[in-house]
Amino acid sequence: MATPAPIDCETAVRRLWDFLDGELGAMSAAEVEAHLATCARCVPHFAFATEMLDAVTASRRVPGDLEPLRARVVTALETQGFRGARA
Amino acid sequence: MDGQSASHAAAVARDAVFEREVLACLPDVTRYARSLTHDETAADDLVQETFLLAYRGYHTFRTGEDVRRWLLTICRRAFLRDRMRSSRVVTTDEGTNAELDTLAAVTGHAAAQRAGEDMLFERFDLAPAIEQAIAALPEAFRRAVVLVDVEGEGYEEAAEIEAVPVGTIRSRLFRGRRLLQEQLLDFARDAGYEATRRPAAVAAASPAVIRPRRAPRHATGAQARVAQQTT
Fold first, then answer.
1. Residue B166 lies in a domain
2. Which residue in chain B has the smallest CA separation from A73?
3. Are residues B195 and B108 located together in one domain of the fold?
4. Contacts B227 to A, Cβ<8 Å
């Protein structure tokens, strides 16, 4: 791959979420990485966004007791001929 | 074995696979249904409907497909169909410029930085606030945030579930994240966040390596795919 071209701060931050989500093309991502390696202004923005997205992902939780709902779903499925064993 | 018992055995085997692989996604479908309906009773009805539809259509499911994504797609379609039946029309500002929303979020962070209010993720247990903030997002943005940031789907996969172009998911996601960030910063301020400026040396010293949170897709990139869709 060719050496990434220098990009300015605005270009870098416009790509912030695409970069963190792994959705940039290889060259565009390399340009952002090269920019972050030398720009102390942009790194905190990327770090903050990373923390926020990590916190959102960490808020994912398994819903409470699903056994009654599961039993209800299985009962409904049984009316359609489902032969699964109840948990 | 005669033909009848062979077909009975095949049906029993199929149901066992359904139970093991499809019903196992009940927590994921429930979480998604709750994010759609905002109402536990309505969500339970939607979950039941989703699994009934999945069972009836199980013969259309192709081995190797992502079963969870298949279920979430069914769930979303069922939700929209039920909503159309009840004639509740929801309009949404789509969030048409993804880059502007990214820039606005960075500007918001820069303001919080200047006020010394940007370390909220290190100081607060934000999980309850995040749940509330997600629930308060306008519906289309909420669905995009839930699919990508909570459930961990990529842009293309979320677009497939929502049956919209990748560019639409990206715009909705970025607007949703921007709104989420604003709400979380507001929450921190309302919770009596004590502004303590970081020493200049700490603020400037930022050699931390920033990497994508997910394995890069790299083949074409979201921006390129969005450009392709709009040309």
1. yes
2. B48
3. yes
4. none
